[in-house]
Amino acid sequence: MTLEILTPDKKVFEGEATSVTLPGTLGSFEILNHHAPIISTLQDGKLVVRGSGKEEIFFIQGGVVEALNNVVTVLAEGITHK
């Protein structure tokens, strides 16, 4: 699936991923390839991107996520990369 992570200032990540773990406001959840359409709010926490045998970790300050047609878009208020 294609993943984009954006903040109001810049695009932080764009690429292919096999899974994304997100800090939802009602608890952590994971989006996998061909996930059903979803829109969810996010709280401050760890966002983990997995793909191509590697893992990237970001820490976000709230936001929203949309998954539709195997494209996942994360709009974060702020972000730091580990």
Automatic annotation (TrEMBL):
Q: Which Pfam families match?
A: ATP-synt_DE_N
GO molecular-function term, one example from the UniProt record = proton-transporting ATP synthase activity, rotational mechanism
Q: Name one GO cellular component term.
A: proton-transporting ATP synthase complex
Where would you find this protein in the cell? Endomembrane system
The UniProt record lists the keyword Repeat:
no
Stated membrane topology is: Peripheral membrane protein
SUPFAM superfamilies assigned to the protein according to its UniProt record, in alphabetical order: Epsilon subunit of F1F0-ATP synthase N-terminal domain
Keyword tags: ATP synthesis, CF(1), Ion transport, Membrane, Transport
* Entry keyword Ion transport: yes
Note the Gene3D superfamilies from the entry: F0F1 ATP synthase delta/epsilon subunit, N-terminal (2.60.15.10)
Looking at the record, the residues that make up the ATP synthase F1 complex delta/epsilon subunit N-terminal domain are 1-77
Give the highest taxon in the source lineage: Bacteria
- PANTHER family linked to this entry: ATP SYNTHASE DELTA/EPSILON CHAIN (PTHR13822), ATP SYNTHASE EPSILON CHAIN, CHLOROPLASTIC (PTHR13822:SF10)
| Membership in a protein family | Belongs to the ATPase epsilon chain family.
Q: How does it assemble?
A: F-type ATPases have 2 components, CF(1) - the catalytic core - and CF(0) - the membrane proton channel. CF(1) has five subunits: alpha(3), beta(3), gamma(1), delta(1), epsilon(1). CF(0) has three main subunits: a, b and c.
As for what it does, the entry says: Produces ATP from ADP in the presence of a proton gradient across the membrane.
Its name, as the record gives it, is ATP synthase F1 subcomplex epsilon subunit
Source organism of this protein record:
Mucilaginibacter mallensis
